[in-house]
Amino acid sequence: AVSTLADVACKCHGVSGSCSLKTCWLQLADFRKVGDLLKEKYDSAAAMKLNTRGKLVQVNNKFNSPTMNDLIYIDPSPDYCVHNESTGSLGTQGRLCNKTSEGMDGCELMCCGRGYDQFKTVQTERCHCKFHWCCYVKCKKCTEVVDQFACK
């Protein structure tokens, strides 16, 4: 994924912007892009098993065979919902979740059907910031009571 998303970046060197010498290098892609691609591959990884001859075969033949660019697995992932020291999973109990999101951070999905608790917290942020000539920014501190949610 890292090498697939890498880009060639170049810089010209020369008098008055001429490109008499050009230096190019391979530049890593944005970390978020690499992470998103790996997550997409993880979510669509193909389950495999060893047949009697010791060869990897696909568990479910309804799907296309995996390519060299696909991820495969033999052992299923652990249950990330529950704490399990042997697999390194911390579980989701006590994790903050987003009540309105339908994504991975949403309470419905993250809390694995156990529900969630609602509580109030006080958040302090910088606000009403003003730039003063020259050269500093002066802000006030604003406090706000916000609802937060944590998995049971």
Automatic annotation (TrEMBL):
InterPro entries registered for this protein in UniProt: Wnt, Wnt_C, Wnt_CS
Keywords: Developmental protein, Disulfide bond, Extracellular matrix, Gastrulation, Glycoprotein, Lipoprotein, Secreted, Sulfation, Wnt signaling pathway
GO MF annotation list: signaling receptor binding
Compartment list: Secreted, Extracellular space, Extracellular matrix
SMART domains assigned: WNT1 (SM00097)
Gene3D superfamilies named in the record: 3.30.2460.20
Function: Ligand for members of the frizzled family of seven transmembrane receptors.
Descriptive protein name: Protein Wnt
Organism the protein comes from: Xenopus tropicalis (Western clawed frog)
